[in-house]
């Protein structure tokens, strides 16, 4: 497959993901209604579905059709969504807006938001445990183990902890790197690995996908840091300048905007070069690296 | 195996579980330290390990040695522990004490307690994804699916939601039954099913284990309701009378203490009769039903 039109690729994969996500939760109105409304409110809040699309693009690179990869793609988005709900809670970042809408706890209250997050995290593993036709159960178990590790106390959650602890402290590059490679990078890396593992990628191919994911994940977070300074509410859907206001440890805070931009460009170039080495089936991954660098929100 | 001495059975299985739980988390002091301290603080807070022991006892009934069942036993305890941490948070029950010690958020703060709960829930699936020798990967996947469903928005979390919504409302037996069979019953039922599934129980055996778990789980929660009224801090490790003070939906609130006690007795008798029908290997399950009925804390 050769993809010249990234937008049409994104649109078609987004639709597959959207339909699969729709089926990945109990139907709207399921008892008890409050929790299911809250889960759906946050899951269908207009996210770009970048992570699930990365799962599909990685698996397609390794020769799989997208359909058997959809449970893993959904699982990653469910985990991403739960992490946003919990991050926004008053005990954490205390954010009122996310993607231009009120945050989950502002609409449903703190208790339901907390439980909705818990339920989305739990549902990720229920969804991932369904074995798609043609994928060996042992591969699915490997994917579950990798996703849990990536999302856990030495992965995404570990990054969140250090991010909180670093607030208001002088930011060293070492700390910022830990935060970015864990809080955001860990799950993005897992997207690439899950796609590869479930598609039966060989060791070398999987290693390249992993390194692509590491470069892309860090680039993604650095551009996020930059957008927080330069972006506006309309495009970002949340207040800008919050990182500086909170004394968050970011790349621009450590190295300045210019250097941060330069590093993001280098990381994306490296990701693109890794994608090129995977051949024409990795064209979506190649194009996605440019998309991440140039995104506006 | 015939067990006449429940205490020695519980002690030996508790030790196996304890050792396995010790290995189920990153080592103490792992980076970032705050989250790992909090996870360990709550996981090793003197719990009775009833749920993991039920996983082992169910699996042993179906002919398995305890060792291959330990990942599932740990996973269930990790989930139980996360649910306690989140239940105790200010946004939920706002409890200061649990098992006679300060609750997780009182020691580590709300943000770390929230994340420690998230991390324990996540780790449950990391642990369960390790396939023990001799157990087919497909069975492990089935166990993961059942555990996630039991702990999710239509299981344990669903029960928690309805429990909160029912506070201060007139309690109907229908609502109380939903709360009890979901908030507590769902995970206890899953213990029995996971043990059975991983041990390769046949359909009929699994069905009996399931019904045993349903009876035991409801009996357990009713005795909990009764202990909240009659127990004291020394034995319970938390303040008694809180259910009444909060207007919680309980069996005694619905039916009175006498009737509640009678129903708990009947449920345990039914559980014992189901255990009897599983033969001598189910002696621990038989004795555990008596233990649950007569426990003092």
From TrEMBL, chains A, B:
Any GO BP: terpenoid biosynthetic process
Reactions accelerated catalytically: isopentenyl diphosphate + (2E)-geranyl diphosphate = (2E,6E)-farnesyl diphosphate + diphosphate
Primary enzyme class: transferase
Cofactors demanded by this protein: Mg(2+)
Keyword terms: Isoprene biosynthesis, Magnesium, Metal-binding, Transferase
Descriptive protein name: Farnesyl diphosphate synthase
Entry similarity comment: Belongs to the FPP/GGPP synthase family.
Matching InterPro entries: Isoprenoid_synthase_dom_sf, Polyprenyl_synt, Polyprenyl_synt_CS, Prenyl_diphosphate_synthase
GO cellular component terms, A-Z: cytoplasm
Entry's EC annotation: 2.5.1.10
Gene Ontology terms, MF aspect: (2E,6E)-farnesyl diphosphate synthase activity; metal ion binding
Pfam family, one: polyprenyl_synt
Keyword Transferase: yes
Alphabetical list of PROSITE patterns matching this protein: POLYPRENYL_SYNTHASE_1, POLYPRENYL_SYNTHASE_2
Entry keyword annotation includes Metal-binding: yes
